[in-house]
Specification:
By secondary structure, the protein is mainly β. It has one domain: 2,3-Dihydroxybiphenyl 1,2-Dioxygenase, domain 1. Helices cover 13% and strands 35% of the residues. It contains 2 helices and 8 strands, in the order E-H-E-E-E-E-H-E-E-E. A hairpin with a 5-residue loop joins strand 7 and strand 8. The longest helix is centred in the N-terminal third of the chain and has 12 residues. It is globular.
Length: 133
């Protein structure tokens, strides 16, 4: 049996790619990698261990093909480990809006939260429960 992730790639629409890049770099404490094509500009999320099972994605600017939305389309969950609360605390200072605060799903499943980014996208985050001992 071949191992496959449910998601292999995601794209988050932007109206202002530089503003969105600054937001995601500030909130997630990461550096996005530019990858531009003639009709498409992207800023890729880092991958810790690139292999055939790695999942990543990018902020994209396509002049209309991708349209930001706070209500339409799928809801993606980005990794907030080790703390949804600490990550969401960075959202408003970076220009976004928290719409679901850090909320425990269950003791086994950890925490989730949802924010609206600087482009108007609804994005969720999830963190696994901390292991003690």
């Amino acid at each position: 049996m071949v191992h496959r992730n449910a998601i292999s790639w995601f794209e988050i629409p932007t109206e202002d790619l530089e503003r969105a890049t600054a937001f995601y770099e500030a909130v997630f404490s990461i550096e996005l990698k530019p990858m531009d094509f003639p009709n498409l500009k992207m800023r890729m999320f880092p991958v810790e261990s690139p292999d055939e099972h790695a999942v990543s994605g990018a902020l994209v600017k396509t002049d209309g093909f991708h349209v930001p939305s706070a209500t339409l389309g799928p809801l993606i969950y980005l990794n907030a480990n080790p703390s949804v609360h600490d990550l969401l605390a960075k959202v408003e200072p970076a220009g976004g809006t928290v719409i679901v605060p850090s909320t425990q799903i269950s003791p086994e499943q950890g925490y989730m939260g949802v924010f609206i980014d600087t482009e108007g996208n609804r994005i969720a985050v999830h963190a696994l429960p901390l292991k003690h001992g």
